[in-house]
Amino acid sequence: GSREITAILRDNGGNPLSGKTISWSTTAGTITQTTVTDNLGRAIATFTAPVVTQVENVTITATFAGDASYLGSQANALCTVSPTPLIPTTLIAVIVVIILIILISLILLKYRKS
Prior knowledge:
Blueprint lengths: L1 E7 L12 E6 L3 E2 L2 E3 L5 E7 L7 E9 L8 E9 L7 H25 L1
Antiparallel strand pairs: 1-5, 2-4, 2-6, 3-5, 6-7
């Protein structure tokens, strides 16, 4: 699935930096390559997790290269990606209920015939 990932860029005084380009990278899956910070210093990227067969750790990196006024900065976030069940849980529950209804119906029919 896809999720929005947010990085916040601030100066040393904690003030948000707007209009700054943030580069994004990930060790697996895909992510928006670059975004620009808004008036609150937020840069929002879309991360799409890879398809995995077992739990996998993925590192997402947001980088501000720096400019004439500010030095560069980088932050990493570690997230865990889990495999998606082959059959969604809801579908399994529906199938189980249908099977139970069929079994109960067969038992009732057999009971009525006796």
